[in-house]
Design a protein that fits this description.
Shape of chain B: globular
Order of helices and strands of chain A: EHHHHEHEHEHEHEEEHHEEHEHHEH
Oligomer: heterodimer
CATH topology of the largest domain in chain B: Aspartate Aminotransferase, domain 2
CATH architecture of the largest domain in chain A: 3-Layer(aba) Sandwich
Shape of chain A: globular
CATH class of the largest domain in chain A: Alpha Beta
Number of strands of chain A: 12
Strand order of the largest sheet of chain A: 2-8-7-6-5-3-4
Number of domains of chain A: 2
Strand content of chain B: 5-15%
Number of helices of chain A: 14
Structural class of chain A: alpha/beta
Number of helices of chain B: 13
Number of strands of chain B: 12
Structural class of chain B: alpha/beta
Distance between the termini of chain A: 28 Å
Largest sheet of chain B: 7 strands, mixed
Amino acid sequence: MRVYLDNNATTKIDPLVKVKMQPFFEELYGNPNSLHAYGMEVRPHLNEALGAVYDALNIPDEDDVLITSCATESNNSVLKGVFFKHILTNPDKNHIVTTAVEHPSVLETLLFLEEHGVRVTFVDVDENGGVSAQAVKDAVTDQTILISMMWANNETGMIFPVAEVAKFAREKGILFHTDAVQAIGKLPVDLKKVRVDYLTLSAHKFHGPKGIGALYVRKGCELPNLFHGGEQMGGKRAGTLNVPYIVGMGLAIRQAVNHVEVMNTQVRALRDELEDALAKIPDTFIVGPRHMRTPNTILLSIRGVEGEAMLWDLNRAGIAASTGSACASESLHANPVMSAIGQDPELAHTAIRLSLSRFTTLEEVEYTIEVFTKAVERLRSISSTYGYKG
Amino acid sequence: MEIYLDNNATTMVDPKVVEAMVPFFGQMYGNPNSLHKFGTQTHAALTKAVDQVYKALNAADADDVIFTSCATESNNWVLKSVWLDHIMHGHKNHIVVSEVEHPSVLTTCRFLEEQGVKVTYLPVNDQGIVEAHTVKSFITDRTALVSIMWANNETGMIFPIKEIGEICREKGVLFHTDAVQAVGKIPVDLQAVHVDFLSFSAHKFHGPKGIGGLYIRNSQALSPLLHGGEHMGGRRSGTLNVPYIVGMGLAMELATQNMSATSAKIRALRDRLEDALLQLPDVFVVGNRANRTPNTLLISIRGVEGEGMLWDLNNAHIGASTGSACASEDLEANTVMLAIGADSELAHTGIRLSLSRFTTEAEVDAVIDAFKKAVGRLRAISSSYAKVQPTHS
């Protein structure tokens, strides 16, 4: 059996999405910016896909959705756009507040901007891996131009207080960006209720293709382009439109939003069953209270078991899991989120993330429990640090 | 019959390329940066794609080829990072480009001008190209970068990249070329010419839309445009678009293998089309055909608005263009035509026909027919074209 429990890294393309994209490679291949029939005939499909994104997130018509090549591009666009438009022109507003556990596309970009004179405060997470709205508010100064805080964390699944911080930012006249990559399709995201200025999303986290994402921009908060060029996207993001993937993302987000309830009932139940079983293994620790997490995610650490070793045992049994963000998985550093929440370094090396999807089955969960339990026993029996009594 | 002669705007994905991509939309969906089998099983295909690209461009092992989401990204990356790395805090303050670059270069340059960068937009000659000595004469000791396209999207004219590359090397100035219209159409050998950065885009050579690349000579430093994870050795972040990377590798291989035979065939069809259209009175083709990409023809027809022509062709199921698709919604005069000194009436009459290796002789003959009829019809109703030829001699 092959079991894929790494859905926070990437997901399988929904078979319906795959079918939907197929005609746009060989038949409907025109450039939508062309005036002839080959170009014009793809436009209704693009409009439908864009409409699906607006519907899925309840976006006001007046606001922009820019299609990008991925969430990394969306995040870079916001942070560098704020730097180009606001910070370079007004050095008195040169401060950005973020959290210590953002995705590398936020953290690395901010480290780069620090080299260019931007001041950044990285707010720490608490012992649950959560961020308190108060800690973010306390970090803000008169010089703060932007707060960037993710909607939910990729490693722990912990949900951050986006609504409260968005409201606060609005009152203070500070721009607010949220990387909602891990929230879409897992939690309700309603942009008429939660008034953010910028929101990042990525199709491949909700069973769409890899290499397409979007950036929501509230009217009045426009930024200079990261990609200057042609007149695609109203001149706000240049580059020939990736028609098959845009069409695919439209259907994928529609499907994802239609399945939010399934995620929060059936998938949550499977996750909880898995979590309950693994929590019975002695000396294991699960990060964050489950009601404060996305319904598909578990991050647990197993004393005496190296995360990498665990990963290999699972892999041999056909189970895909992760020790943390795939973006940094080739470096065998301690899990940065675990370190941030204050676990001792030994435990921080023992973290395993299991992330389910709406395609995960009960049979797969039961198989995983069995394999996982045996792997812990085996690895503890050969561990030099864990006094295992069988 | 539907005939697509707008291959400089975008191309059909080669069916073989679609076939190669399909498994990666299905079972092979892992993130290649993951350590488990779902991730690692994609590595062989990615490695093969990288090898195909290096081979097609004859890049050296010491060079980097970084995958991007499109040539627009590659062009923005070079220009903005040269600004951030060499101009914002340094002595350099100057960039040299041609006035007929793609909008992704020109619009970025206008943005950089707002940030205080000096930009020189070099004129083209009556053939539509920038001459190497012109580039040389505008380089100063404060020039950080020269960016000149390899071949022009509208005219197909090929620029003297080898000579410009040598000049930049002698002067110690970085040299970037947007080779979007060259790769897959004419030989691009990066060990025979000296360029520091080269942009390319898969959808111009029968690969998918939404994937491209940037070649970086000798892995030299250039700050990322997309910061983030450790993808591409930290040079360009973002989860890898595995199906499209695999597709681009194969598309590049297909476009460059047997290139001389394929381009001879395309050139013969293009020349057949061009010769036939040149029999019409008062038409002008831009640029010497020997120095053009083999698939491209930009023709202007006195008395016939380009837009009007486009609609007549469209009604005959022929896809053509008045210029770059990236700017096709504004009905302005063709910028390249203006640059080469055409009067503004003529600049509104440019029609670009661009063929591909899938174009057939039957299609070309049908286009010749439809084109001639359309010119006849449109001139008959033209207010500016004297349709009655002098008969008194």
